[in-house]
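Hi everyone, sorry if this is the wrong subforum. Our group has a chain we'd like a structural model of before ordering constructs, and none of us has done structure prediction before. Sequence below.
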Amino acid sequence: MAWDEEAEKLQRDLSSFDFKVVEADKASAKDLESVFSLFEMNYRQANHAYLEKSLATLRYLALAEHEGTAVGFALGECRVMDLPRLPAEVVNLAGISCIAPQFRRRGLFAELARRSLAAAEVPPHSRRLTCGRMAHPVGVRPFVRHPTVVPKPGVRPTPWQQEVGQAIADAFGSHAFDPETFVCIGSGEPIGYPNIEFQVEPIEWEVFRQVNRDRGDALLAMVWMPDAPPGW
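Answer:
Right subforum, don't worry. Here is the predicted structure as tokens:
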């Protein structure tokens, strides 16, 4: 999946961190306090209702600690889903991830995402669909150049891709979904605005330009690994 490739590129030493994965609905009060603190650390106008809904929707919460202090988390889940024209597919649903500023660019994002998605036992499979909702354009970076990615800049999703996109948006609990642009339409309140400056490439802006962050929109992106099903 995309995060495996990213982790291989980073080749960072994570030995100073302690990791754990818990079911989100069984997370302790301490763990939840850490999660909301990291969320507020990463976003201005951090929307607690959005994070609460994510915790209720995605099964696993991966946490990283450094010297006893929580420094990162990721939400995610791997499910077997019946998708349009594709019964019993293995699907990665990657959720929000936040890293304490002093520990960014050390490979924690990729490792936490990997752990949250690997927590569930799934049957043997020849391919899987990895999906994520992006609240800012740099989030599409692990997806945008993959040959199977949807959406692609300047390419209208096919009817089949739109049907699968709708099914995935429903699995994420999205308020509404535009199958033409793959924008998950927000509830009217922003998710939050990142407390970090990003250098965004034109290709990343191109697929993200219909997203209205003031409304709480996010962009749904999907890639198949290692390849797409015939006719995709």
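For your construct planning: The mean pLDDT is 93. The longest strand covers residues 69-83.
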